[in-house]
Design goal:
Blueprint: H1 7-30, H2 37-44, H3 48-54, H4 63-79, H5 86-97, H6 103-116, H7 122-143, H8 150-172, H9 184-196
Helix pairs in contact: 1-2, 4-5, 4-7, 5-9, 6-8, 7-8, 8-9
Length: 220
C-alpha cells in the first residue's frame, strides 16, 4: 500500500474541483446571491443530485478553491526541515504558499479576490479558515517537544491562521497586484510577524517544557 488515492477517489476529487471552478466563475460573473445551485450543476455538467452529494449549500461549492492555499501552507510547514526554528518555518511556508508559482496560481489568486469581495461567501471563508487552523494545530504539535503546552500550540495556530486571513482580506479589498508591495505574500509576512511575535511557543529550549504544560521555573 502506497497511500495513493484510488481511481474512484481521484475522480471524485476531480469532479469536486470542477464544480468549484465552475461556481467560482459564475459567482465572479453574477455574484453568489444571483447564482443558483442548478446553474452551477448545469455549467459543470453534473446533475443537481450530484452537486448536493458534494456540497450542502451553493456557497460551499467554492470551498475547495479557498482552502487550497491553506492546505499548501500546512503541507509546506509539515515538510520543512526539523532544524529550522518553528517560527521561521511557519513564516517561510506561509509566504511560499501565498506566492503564485505559475499562471494557474495567478488565476486562482484573482478568483480568491473576487470571492472574498462577495459578502455571501463570508460563512464559507470562515469555515475554511477554521479547518485550516485545526490542521495547522496538528502540524505545530508534531514539531514541538514532548510536554508542549496544548494551549500555547493552539494560540500559535490561531494567531498564524488569523495572520493569513487578515492578509488575504486586506489584499482583496485593495487593487494591489498578486506580487510586490501590498501583495498577499507581502502582507502575509508582515501580519505573521506582528501577530505571532509575542507567543511563548517559539524557540523555547526543550528543558523548559514539562508534561503538565506549565512553564519550568528556576526552582523546578
Amino acid at each position: 500500500m502506497t497511500g495513493r488515492p484510488t481511481l474512484t477517489q481521484r475522480r471524485r476529487d476531480a469532479t469536486r474541483l470542477e464544480i468549484a471552478r465552475t461556481a467560482a466563475a459564475l459567482f465572479a460573473e453574477q455574484g453568489a446571491e444571483a447564482t443558483t445551485a442548478e446553474e452551477i450543476a448545469a455549467a459543470a455538467g453534473v446533475s443537481l443530485r450530484t452537486f448536493y452529494r458534494y456540497f450542502s449549500v451553493k456557497e460551499d461549492a467554492v470551498a475547495p478553491l479557498l482552502a487550497a492555499g491553506g492546505q499548501r501552507w500546512v503541507d509546506l510547514l509539515a515538510e520543512s526541515p526539523a532544524d529550522v526554528p518553528l517560527r521561521e518555518a511557519l513564516e517561510r511556508s506561509a509566504v511560499e504558499s501565498l506566492t503564485p508559482a505559475d499562471d494557474e496560481a495567478v488565476e486562482a489568486m484573482h478568483w480568491t479576490r473576487d470571492l472574498l469581495r462577495d459578502p455571501r461567501l463570508d460563512g464559507t471563508w470562515q469555515r475554511v479558515h477554521a479547518a485550516s487552523e485545526a490542521r495547522l494545530r496538528g502540524v505545530l504539535a508534531a514539531r514541538c517537544p514532548d510536554g508542549a503546552d496544548p494551549l500555547e500550540v493552539r494560540l500559535a495556530a490561531a494567531a498564524a491562521t488569523a495572520a493569513i486571513r487578515v492578509a488575504l482580506e486586506q489584499w482583496a479589498g485593495s487593487d494591489a497586484a498578486v506580487t510586490g508591495p501590498g501583495s498577499p505574500q507581502d502582507l502575509g509576512a508582515r501580519c505573521m510577524r506582528e501577530l505571532t511575535a509575542g507567543l511563548r511557543l517559539w524557540d523555547r529550549p526543550a528543558g523548559e517544557w514539562r508534561p503538565s504544560g506549565e512553564r519550568m521555573t528556576a526552582d523546578g
